[in-house]
Write a structure and sequence with these properties.
2 copies of one chain form a homodimer.
Chain A (H helix, E strand, L loop, with lengths): L7 H8 L6 H12 L6 H11 L5 H13 L3 E4 L7 E4 L4 E6 L5 E3 L6 H11 L2 E12 L1 H8 L1
Helix pairs in contact in A: 2-3, 3-4
The first copy, chain A, binds a DNA duplex (30 and 30 nucleotides) through helix 2 and helix 4.
DNA sequence: CAACGTATTGAAAAAATATTTCAATACGTT
DNA sequence: AACGTATTGAAATATTTTTTCAATACGTTG
């Protein structure tokens, strides 16, 4: 029951000088209620339940805006690369190959690896995306029968 | 100067029961000559230099086919998620945020991390995609001026 | 090595996805 | 409460991908 205008994403938008319009708040709410795995069309459908006159164009525009501010990020997978999730700089996803559910997991232990890549290639490294895919426990059971 | 019909990808296609047609061989050759980072349109353009009557549809179809056989895989990045590269199961990409060049790097040290995720989530893990982004040495220089 | 049956092809059409344009509207400031 | 401007949705446009289908090339068989 938190005020939609007080969420971190809403705050960040306001601080960046953008208006907190109803369409934008609807998109934000959808993103917050569904941590990962919605594509623009799905966000649009759910957003319309919150703000019925929402337009698909605005969903695209809002996602672009949020992506530019680093608040949202695409979740990629073999099957789909148009899903968005509320995002920090670095992301770690675990994707079920059967039901395509996406969850996040804590990620530790990449620092060393990145340091060695840095040394070997001369690249600076600003962000990373680690995506693991396999089967979730439910699908393992379901497919075991 | 290797026989295009003897490359590992061509062999795998043949073994899976598919015909080694000229259009397919052209697509394979393009993929082999450009290790990462071409989208279907770019593959089409280059493929036509090899086999001029190549159709874009065939590029899509061949990529689907190769992806299904696990021979090719999309390279995802913040800006683009339609690039294909010849692929093993596990991939590690390093992407320059400025020139969008994609290189691969050897990846060691993920095993531990994956084992801990496996234990914490109950997921099985079959594949991984690790994408690092930053600036390549050239762009670092260029932007430093 | 010629002829055959079928998988594969390219072009065109259709579908899906994304972007641009623009007049009308809602935001937040004053 | 009224104003100026950023933002909106609809329509038009552009881009990307998939489907359909008759024509063709593959690789097998005789």
């Amino acid at each position: 029951m938190t005020d939609p205008r007080q969420t971190p994403m809403a705050q960040a938008l306001r601080e960046a000088g953008y208006k907190l319009t109803q369409p934008r708040l609807a998109v934000l709410q959808v993103l917050e209620e569904n941590d990962a795995g919605l594509d623009p069309e799905a966000i649009y459908d759910r957003g319309k339940l919150i703000y019925p006159s929402l337009g698909l164009v605005t969903v695209y525009r809002t996602l672009d805006l949020l992506a530019e501010l680093g608040l949202v990020r695409r979740v990629h997978s073999m099957h789909n690369c148009h899903n968005y999730a509320s995002a920090r700089t670095d992301r770690h996803y675990l994707i079920c190959e059967s039901c395509h559910r996406v969850i996040e997991f804590p990620c530790r232990g990449l620092e060393e690896l990145m340091e060695s890549v840095r040394q070997q290639t001369g690249y600076t490294i600003n962000a990373h995306l680690l995506e693991l895919s396999g089967l979730c426990p439910e699908c393992q059971k379901r497919l075991a029968t």
